[in-house]
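Human: I'm a chemist; would you kindly supply sequence and C-alpha cells for a protein?

Assistant:
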Amino acid sequence: MKKVAIIRCLDVSMRCVGASCMKSFNNRTVKFERYGDEKLELFAGLTCNGCGKTVENDEGLKKKLDRLAEEPVDVVHFSSCTNKKDKENPELKKRCPWVEKMKDYLEGKGVEVVYGTHH
C-alpha cells in the first residue's frame, strides 16, 4: 500500500477546508489518477509553516518533513493552492519558492513529490 501525504499552503488554509484535495484523493481524479487501482493510504495532511519558512530557518518545519521521510511516506502531493498568482500577471500562476525548497529537501530524503491535487 502506498502512503500519501498532502501539504497545503498556510495562507490558503485560513479559508479552505481541503475538501477538493480530499475529494480528488478519494475519487482518484486529477493528480491522483496516476495511481489507478493501486491501494493508497492518506497518511498525512499538513500545512506548510508559512512564507519564508524553510528547513534551514524553521526547526518545526524540518521536524515535520523529517517525520514524513522517516515513516516513510511514498509520495507527497503539494496541494494545488501552493501555486501562487503572479502579481504582475494574475492570470498566470507560479510555484511557491518555499514549496520548491520543501520539494528539494524531501526529494533529497528519497520521497517522491507531485505538484497538485485538483483543478
User: Anything to note?
Assistant: The longest strand covers residues 40-47. Residues 59-70 form the longest helix (12 residues).
